[in-house]
Fold these 2 entries.
Entry 1:
Amino acid sequence: MKIAIGNDHAAPELKLAVVEHLKAQGIECIDMGCAAGEKCDYPNAAAAVCEKVLGGEADLGILICGTGVGMSLAANKFKGIRAACCSECFSARLTREHNNANVLCFGARVVGEGTAMDLVDAFVHTEFSGDERHQRRIDLITAIEERN
Ligand code: RB5
């Protein structure tokens, strides 16, 4: 599995910790975020990660900013991206199972490192259920995207 990961200046340390955490599980990371000491605008990092996911170079994306909210707003502007901003594991798991989310967002100023790793594990290790009712609802989201 390959994960594209991005961050702004609120989260370079947490991003590195997530990369290490995933690498330790044999999961490859494409780091599109900024380094400590750099300033970077979250929409640019979100775009870089979403392009990797939509282009098939990454299976899933992870975006970390101060709150996770700006990243999710930017990511969800991409057709085909379903980005979920989560701060607890139940949602991180269910957004894969039910929404087939392909990008996880969270805030380095919201969650600590322990919760961040749990969010990442819940998201990365959960598959979409494939259930017809969930797929129908995802198709309705896609239809909204197509109309607007
Ligand atoms: C940057 O200071 C902050 O606005 C950003 O990290 C994020 O929280 C935006 O949603």
Entry 2:
Amino acid sequence: MGLSYTFTHAICRAPSNSIIDGLRAVDTGTPDLDTFRQHHADYVAALRATGAEVTVLAPLEEFPDSVFVEDAALCLPKGAVIMRPGAPSRLGEALAIAPAIAETYGEVRAIEGPGFIEGGDILVTEREILVGKSARTDADGVEELRAIVSDWGYTLRELQTPPDVLHFKTDCSLLDAETILTTRRLAASGCFDGYNLIYTEDDEEACANAIRFNDRVLFPAGFPRTAETLDKAGYNVTEIGNSEAAKLDGGMSCLSLRFTPPA
Ligand code: GLY
């Protein structure tokens, strides 16, 4: 236990003014900065309410998407790995996050390339590390990560993110050791066989990116039928506004690195 949803720490990064220039697949409007900041503050407060120590790093104006810290690193109980983002404008975020990770972990490993991999494509469960290849994560990146995490005794399984979906975790979240919240389009491949599945309700696929963080599920506001499904299944659901991050294809998992440092 302890690999996938119980954490003592998290790292977030405050939204920069430049976030209005963040990447997006489809332009659905400019994020409102004040609203983004309020949602981010609510998110950090919800993490802290579980008793976790949450570090909020200073904003990075030169990297508009840097609020989405999850893509720049992978933090596991036995070690941390700095990623190599596949979006050229995000490549430098990996170097920028490294000192904060090293402060906690000491020595960190890094994906050196030539492959690419982003944290949004990685779902860590109690038994394995699932990595979906995507437009941001390629086979070389997956293999380099496999070599690193194998040294630590973890099993990695390579999967495929559905076409036109930004990240693997855009479409799924871990809810507990055995249970995954998923869209039907992702689960249709059979990639979660052996897990208990809870499906997003029809027309609510955009809420599949949630996080289980200690006793809570942080869940994007605005998806009442799936929220009710989770509530009835016994999860302690905390709804957080996500309207502005969603304009940049961001969700609950993207906004934090969650971990328990090595003893
Ligand atoms: N806007 C987040 C991303 O595309 O990586």
